[in-house]
Amino acid sequence: MIIKRLLSFIWPQTTTVSSDYSGVLELTVVNGKKMLDSKNANYSFGSLQRILERGLREIELKDVSSVVLLGLGGGSLITSLRERFNYSGKIYAVDIDSVVIDIAKKEFNIQESEHLHIFNADAYDYVKAFSTTTDLIIVDLFIDTKVPTKFYSEDFCCELSRILSPKGQMIFNLGMDDSGAKERQQVITYFKSNPNFKCTILEKIEGTNVVMIVETIPHQTK
């Protein structure tokens, strides 16, 4: 592994892993840094991490006691939350792909603990079964470059809004700018038309992605 890391400063070192859900995944070490990619997109520890960190800069993490992360990938956002944003609360991470979860654990040292729980499950089913609320939801659900259609649905949006706490916030990676515009707009319209939420749309992050930030509006008491 040390030799491979040293060689990566001369040329990228790549190994491939096959997944029934994600197709062929690539683990690439470049200049000593390891990344996880699908055929056409970065999954972890590259541009995707920077995209989601841009969203995290819009979030008041001091008020967050629990995070639901839909789409674990290689776990780069967990690293971001812990190391760059100093978040020490509970994280519930979900991924449908057991191969990806295994990569996160073995290649990126993402380990379960008292404050990190990892679930191998469909995010849609997980949210529907979620029986409490959370202060932050991060939605990052891709198969290669596409967000599966069901995660743009009104039903899914309704379930997301249900599990947000009264002070809840959400980061929703809505996909790449050149695809899924109609479906993406359905999600934006759902939350923008709901008086309980304030929405901010971040366009063309890293030149590609649209990210929606949702904040729950506190109820005014008379």
From TrEMBL:
List, alphabetically, the Pfam families matched.
Spermine_synth
In the record, biological process GO terms are:
polyamine biosynthetic process
Q: Does the keyword Transmembrane apply?
A: no
Q: Which UniProt keywords apply?
A: Polyamine biosynthesis
The identity of this protein, by name, is Spermine/spermidine synthase
- Please name the source species: Bizionia paragorgiae
